[in-house]
From TrEMBL:
Phylogenetic classification of the source organism: Eukaryota, Metazoa, Chordata, Craniata, Vertebrata
Keyword Disulfide bond tagged: yes
Organism annotation: Ovis ammon polii
Gene3D superfamilies referenced in this protein's UniProt entry, alphabetically: Immunoglobulins (2.60.40.10), Ribonuclease Inhibitor (3.80.10.10)
Organism domain of life: Eukaryota
Name the record gives this protein: Immunoglobulin superfamily containing leucine-rich repeat protein
């Protein structure tokens, strides 16, 4: 029995002192160190003691860090991976290292990095990611790093920075971000202001310069003159027709999204119909209404035609096109959205009576439509629902309704022998 106990003790001691063959493991100044630097390693070895607190894998030939690469060493406080050939860090590669205080990934080729892993490293104080191929940092990348004191991002390929990227770093005292090819457009102005006012030390500011646009190439960011920048704004208006565009015969509902902002915002349409959701990056058609090259469409003229001037045409509008139409404008400074609900009611068919009664109720309250330069607009800011009222035959009720609205039919609404009246209500 005593011999068995002795054997077990020897095995346990051996396991405690286990170390991958190429590495050297030991204790120094109270730290359990595994030194695997300069070993020509092509992958992270396995077999580390669980109590390792410092691991050096610098100056090897590692090309990637897979998920769970350091699961064996959960007590790790320092991890050195500089001067490898790492191109990608997979999700989960670092997430288990909740006690990590120092992480050095500098002098690699990293372009693909699992930024979400940083959310688990709340004890991190030093993060070195300089001299890599990083082109983008998510706005929330550093949201959990409230203990971080030093951050090195210099010598990467960063073109811009999302506003507020460094806001969570309340303990930060040192930031290196020089020698990146910054685009000196509106999206970087916030960083210039922050860098000039923050208490964080930012060395080599003479090397924080613009690469584009060409006219600003070489300009120091801290000397960048004010730029005419503004966040997007949108105004959605409604037109029964549009001059200068070739349209098929039949009723066309035209929505126009008037967009303002600097730099010029990108326009996107989001359409929710009974048949599903449609997403359109504007434009998807040319001035003649035909699909642009590369746009997937069932025919040469798409069902929803988004023009470069901000107009959206829906030829042959019917029940299948009912729904919510939203235009979204986005630039480097933010986004803005405006929506309108559109419904088609046919007298004499189910559901129409309710819509008709609500219209008449609005008319009785004095909330009606008016036309300006052939453009139909709601009578108040709350009137954000469009009802297209389709009359098969102009009976007494339809005539009375039309007379109560404007006294005459707006131009462009009488098509294919059908009388179409555009009405605006606050809600269904």
């Amino acid at each position: 029995m005593q011999e068995l106990r002795l054997l077990c003790l020897v095995v346990l001691v051996g396991l405690a002192r286990a170390c991958p063959e190429p590495c050297e493991c030991g204790e120094k100044y109270g730290f359990h160190i595994a030194d695997c630097a300069y070993r020509d390693l092509k992958a992270v070895p396995s077999g580390f003691p669980a109590n390792v607190t410092t691991l050096s894998l610098s100056a090897n030939q590692l090309s990637s860090l897979p998920g769970g690469a350091f699961r064996e060493v959960p007590r790790l406080q320092s991890l050195w991976l500089a001067h490898n050939e790492i191109r990608s860090v997979a999700a989960g590669a670092l997430a288990s290292l909740s006690q990590l205080k120092s992480l050095d990934l500098s002098h690699n080729l990293i372009s693909d990095f699992a930024w979400s892993d940083l959310h688990s490293l709340s004890a991190l104080q030093l993060l070195k990611m300089d001299s890599n191929e990083l082109t983008f940092i998510p706005r929330d990348a550093f949201r959990s790093l409230r203990a971080l004191r030093s951050l090195q991002l210099n010598h990467n390929r960063l073109h811009t920075l999302a506003e507020g990227t460094f806001a969570p770093l309340t303990a930060l005292s040192h930031l290196q971000i020089n020698d990146n090819p910054f685009d000196c457009t509106c999206g970087i102005v916030w960083f210039k202001t922050w860098a000039l006012t923050t208490a964080v030390s930012i060395p080599e500011q003479d090397n924080i310069t613009c690469t584009s646009p060409h006219v600003l190439k070489g300009t120091r960011l801290n000397r960048l003159l004010p730029l005419p920048c503004s966040a997007p704004s949108v105004q959605l208006t409604y037109q029964p027709s549009q001059d200068g565009a070739e349209l098929r015969p039949g009723f066309v509902l035209a929505l126009h999204c008037d967009v303002d902002g600097q730099p010029a915002p990108q326009l996107h349409w989001h359409i929710q119909t009974p048949g599903g959701t449609v997403e359109i990056a504007s434009p998807n058609v040319g001035a003649d209404g035909r699909a642009l090259p590369g746009v997937l469409a069932a025919s040469s003229r798409p069902r929803f035609q988004a023009f470069a001037n901000g107009s959206l045409f829906i030829p042959d509008f019917g029940k299948l096109e009912e729904g919510t139409y939203s235009c979204l404008a986005t630039n480097e400074l933010g986004s803005a959205e405006s929506s309108v609900n559109v419904a088609l009611a046919t007298p004499g068919e189910g559901g129409e009576d309710v819509l008709g009664r609500r219209f008449r109720g609005k008319a009785a309250e004095g909330k009606v439509c008016y036309t300006v330069d052939n453009e139909v607009q709601p009578s108040g800011p709350e009137d954000n629902v469009v009802i297209i009222y389709l009359s098969r035959a102009r009976g007494p009720e339809a005539a009375a309704t039309a007379e109560g609205v404007s006294g005459k039919q707006p131009p462009g609404l009488l098509l294919l022998g059908q009388s179409l009246l555009l009405l605006f209500l606050a809600s269904f």
